[in-house]
Amino acid sequence: MRFVKNILPAFFLAAFALSLFISSCSINNEPDQIMIGISKGLPEKYYGNYANWLKSADSTIICIDLYHMSLDSALMMLKNCDGLLLSGGPDVYPGRYDQGTDTIKCGPIDFTRDTLEWSLISEAKELEMPILGICRGLQIFNIYHGGSLYPDIPTDLDTLVTHRCKNTFDCFHHIKVVQESSLFKISAERSGIVNSNHHQGIHRLAESLNAIARTKDGLIESIEYKDLENMPFFLGVQWHPERMELENPFSLPIAMQFISEVRLYDSNH
Questions:
Q1: Max Cα separation, the chain?
Q2: What digits encode the pLDDT tens for the residues 214-256?
Q3: Residue 21: pLDDT over 70
Q4: What topology is assigned to 3-154+226-267 in CATH?
Q5: Which residues of 126-136 are buried (b: 16+ CB within 10 A; e: fewer)?
Q6: Cis peptide leading into residue 151 (ω within 30°)
Q7: Is the pLDDT of residue 199 over 90?
Q8: Which of 40, 94, 112, 127 has the fewest CB atoms below 10 angstroms from its CB?
Q9: Secondary element (H or E) of residue 176
Q10: Has residue 10 got a pLDDT over 50?
Q11: Integer Cα distance of 58 and 126 in angstroms
Q12: Contact (Cβ atoms closer than 8 angstroms) between residue 183 and residue 212
């Protein structure tokens, strides 16, 4: 366990304390304690599911909300973490994939979050840290590597698949999984049902990434690096596993694999 985890710089101790998920995570000095940074994990009413889901796989972890910090503090905090979860949320500014005129199709844009997550991805890659991207997290990871999105699936893609409903907790669709993929190894399933809660999706996939799950209309639902041997762990999913039944093979097993990769990272640093 790195010394810096236990003796944090005094000038951001206050930010650290405010960012811990007090209701679901606690600090101790056990040697196997790990920390996972979440690009936005608060307020709990809307974003608390991410920490709760990870805690379902490992109750000992510490979850850090990186959004409610200055950019410098968030990047410094990430250096003390063992993994990064890019959570769901509002649309990424389409100007980041050369479609700035399509903002009319988007919801409210959080430019602060765009900048934060862009920087977090860069820092995590430099640290060779495990990354898990969920919904928006998958999308901005693809954009960061040179890909693009459909700004609005209903108007940009001819499809009969329902990707978002008014009642987001009662909306599902089928996916097909590539057998030679990490997602297949995690879930042991070639197909299954996941939830739907997005009006955007991957249009152009970044060259360095592979599509490893799709819906019946061909829309990409999961991605990973092409070069699995030389790149650190990354998995992106378009659905929300943190909102699904834990028994679903595309929910808890993903959290368990991510935490396994995080622990491996921790043991090597």
A1: 55
A2: 998 899 999 999 999 999 999 999 999 999 999 999 999 999 9
A3: no
A4: Rossmann fold (3.40.50)
A5: ebebbbbbbbb
A6: no
A7: no
A8: 112
A9: strand 172-177
A10: no
A11: 26
A12: yes
Confidence of residue 33 (pLDDT cuts 50, 70, 90): confident
Residue in this structure with the two tokens 């909102």, named with its chain if needed: 243
Alpha carbon of 12 to those of 15, 17, 74, 160, 219: distances in Å? Answer: 5, 9, 10, 50, 42
> Which residues are bridge partners to 63 per DSSP?
36
Catalytic residues: 135, 240, 242
Q: How far apart are CA 254 and CA 97, in angstroms?
A: 28
**Minimum mean pLDDT among 4-13, 26-35, 59-68, 234-243: which range?**
4-13
Q: How far apart are CA 234 and CA 209, in angstroms?
A: 10
Q: Are 266 and 34 in contact (CB under 8 A)?
A: yes
pTM of the model: 0.88
Half-sphere exposure for 8 (CA within 13 Å, toward CB) = 17
Amino acid identity, position 191? S
Whether residue 39 is predicted with pLDDT greater than 80 in this model: the reply is yes
